[in-house]
Amino acid sequence: MVLPRSFYSRKAETVAKELLGCFLVTNLPEGITVGKIVETEAYLSAGDLSSHSYKGRTPRNAVMFDSPGRAYVYFTYGMYYCFNTVTGPKGKGEGVLIRSLEPLEGIELMKKRRGVEDIENLCSGPAKLTQAMGIDIKLNGAELTRGPIIIQESDQKVEIITSTRIGITKSIDLPLRFFIKDNPFVSR
DNA sequence: GACCAGATTGTCT
DNA sequence: GACAATCTGGTCA
């Protein structure tokens, strides 16, 4: 079952935790790839100084203020994309960054896109997984309730560990990173 | 293993 | 003009 919009309409921390174990699917002309979400981070709005949305709406972050359940894809470091889901009440500016996946289907395509052979190196980081899944800026604003990117629910129970977020320089003390315990595909 | 430099460009000040 | 929700490949141990 594809996760409905109501799933995303809750606060980012809740969505971030519940996305763990779910399946991210891209269906692009090159083929289908599927990965299990094993690591996420919540980004809030006002008060979260590392969130793109904390200073208000700009052309870049506009999608974060749009409807929950959309994809917020941004370009960073001159060469990488990161993938988020928009969450929370519409207009608030919250989102969840997908940080790593466990590759499940389309692994040969992932290897080709990434240029690496090691399975544990295919999707174990936010910029790695966008490359492996074929996600780029053209998919910014896409609806996750219908293709070409969707997220499917999972009935698996997972054990969740909480920690501080990675790769940021502001609001570094907030416990908004979540990952599946003992999963080898988590980044770092 | 740990640590460091370099890549490369959109975005905001 | 500074910096970025990163990754890779190098050095040194």
* Percentage of residues in strands: 25-35%
Give the biggest sheet.
8 strands, antiparallel
CA radius of gyration: 15 Å
Q: Average pLDDT across residues?
A: 97
Could you please describe the fold and organization of this structure?
The chain has 188 residues and is an alpha+beta fold. The chain has a single domain (5-180), classed as 3-methyladenine DNA Glycosylase, Chain A (Roll). The chain has helices at 5-8, 12-19, 107-114, 126-133, and strands at residues 23-28, 31-43, 71-76, 80-87, 94-105, 149-152, 160-163, 177-180. Strands 1, 2, 3, 4, 5, 6, 7 and 8 form an 8-stranded antiparallel β-sheet that branches. β3 and β4 form a beta hairpin. α3 (107-114) packs across α4 (126-133). The chain is globular and about 40 Å long. It starts with a helix and ends in an 8-residue tail after the last strand. 46% of the residues are buried. It binds a DNA duplex (13 and 13 nucleotides) through β3, β4 and α4.
Short description:
The chain has 4 helices and 8 strands; from the N terminus they run ααβββββααβββ.
List the main descriptive attributes of the protein structure presented here.
eight-stranded antiparallel beta sheet, DNA-binding, 3-methyladenine DNA Glycosylase, Chain A, alpha+beta, 8 strands, 4 helices, 188 residues
Topology:
Elements: H1 5-8, H2 12-19, E1 23-28, E2 31-43, E3 71-76, E4 80-87, E5 94-105, H3 107-114, H4 126-133, E6 149-152, E7 160-163, E8 177-180
Antiparallel strand pairs: 1-2, 1-6, 2-5, 2-8, 3-4, 4-5, 7-8
Helix pairs in contact: 3-4
The protein binds a DNA duplex (13 and 13 nucleotides) through strand 3, strand 4 and helix 4.
